[in-house]
């Protein structure tokens, strides 16, 4: 029997029995972890209120054996709140749907339990913090998170040089299969011709140029979101259920 301590973001919860829950977290040191939290659905449980989606928590686990992720699910025995991002997210529909999509994306990109994914974890913490504070439009925060998640997982799209031959931009065509913008010579079936403003917005979101992103017109933001969604679905091989509810 071993004790482990880590901090993480609660991604989702599932009912277990009459009073328990299975908590899925993205942790700093152990990647995605599922654990059983006993008694948290009882009305008098203060412990359960800390283990809701969007919560940033310091958690103690009790596991059988020397590894946190092994035979059977570990028990979540203690939890302390680091930041309750849910308070600034769940009361606003646009923030809530964007945040839900961020949680689902983080879970999909960490499909192997127990494998550290520090960059994805830090992206999620920063994204939820920004979303909860209302510093930028929710759909822009979401698109920035999606693009950076793709990048840290090895799928960074190109928005300047041709993704196939490297021809310096600007290049006018965009192909999700080719990896971003492509030149006329490398154009493939299914390529689209997005506006330069939409491509500029996506480049700004990927690099953190919020001054440019915040000044973008709504129509270009919608166009950019469509490209991000298509690119994400291509690499995940199936869509995110939560994206259909996101307001643009």
Describe it for me?
The structure is a single chain. This protein is of the alpha+beta class. It is built from 7 helices and 7 strands. The longest helix is centred in the last third of the chain and has 19 residues, at 218-236. The mean pLDDT is 91.
The strand order across the widest sheet is: 3-2-1-4-5
Mean pLDDT: 91
* Residues in β-strands, percent: 15-25%
- The SS-based structural class is alpha+beta
Order of helices and strands: EEEHEEHHHEEHHH
Total domain modules: 2
| CATH homologous superfamily grouping of the largest domain | Recombination protein O, C-terminal domain
CATH structural fold name of the largest domain: de novo design (two linked rop proteins)
Task: Describe the structure concisely.
By secondary structure, the protein is an alpha+beta fold. The chain is 35% helix and 22% strand.
What distinguishing features does this structure have?
DNA recombination; RecO; DNA repair protein RecO; 5-stranded antiparallel sheet; de novo design (two linked rop proteins); 248 residues; alpha+beta; two-stranded antiparallel ribbon; 2 domains; 7 helices; single chain; 22% strand; OB fold (Dihydrolipoamide Acetyltransferase, E2P)
């Amino acid at each position: 029997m071993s004790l482990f301590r880590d901090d993480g973001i609660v991604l989702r919860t599932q009912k277990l029995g009459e009073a328990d829950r299975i908590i899925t977290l993205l942790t700093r040191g152990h990647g995605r972890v599922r654990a059983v939290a006993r008694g948290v659905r009882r009305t008098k449980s203060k412990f359960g209120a800390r283990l809701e989606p969007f919560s940033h928590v310091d958690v103690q686990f009790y596991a059988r054996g020397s590894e946190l992720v092994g035979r059977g699910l570990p028990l979540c025995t203690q939890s302390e709140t680091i930041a309750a991002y849910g308070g600034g997210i769940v009361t606003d529909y646009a923030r809530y749907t964007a945040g839900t999509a961020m949680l689902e994306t983080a879970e999909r990109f960490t499909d192997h339990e127990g494998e550290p994914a520090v960059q994805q974890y830090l992206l999620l913490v920063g994204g939820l913090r920004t979303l909860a504070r209302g510093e930028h439009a929710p759909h822009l925060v979401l698109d920035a998170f999606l693009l950076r998640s793709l990048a840290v997982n090895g799928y960074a799209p190109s928005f300047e040089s041709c993704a196939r031959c490297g021809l310096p931009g600007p290049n006018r065509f965009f192909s999700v299969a080719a990896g971003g913008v492509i030149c006329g010579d490398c154009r493939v079936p299914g390529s689209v011709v997005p506006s330069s403003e939409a491509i500029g917005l996506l480049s700004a979101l990927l690099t953190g140029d919020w001054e440019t992103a915040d000044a973008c017109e709504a129509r270009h933001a919608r166009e950019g979101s469509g490209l991000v969604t298509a690119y994400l679905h291509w690499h995940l091989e199936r869509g995110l259920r939560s994206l259909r509810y996101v307001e643009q």
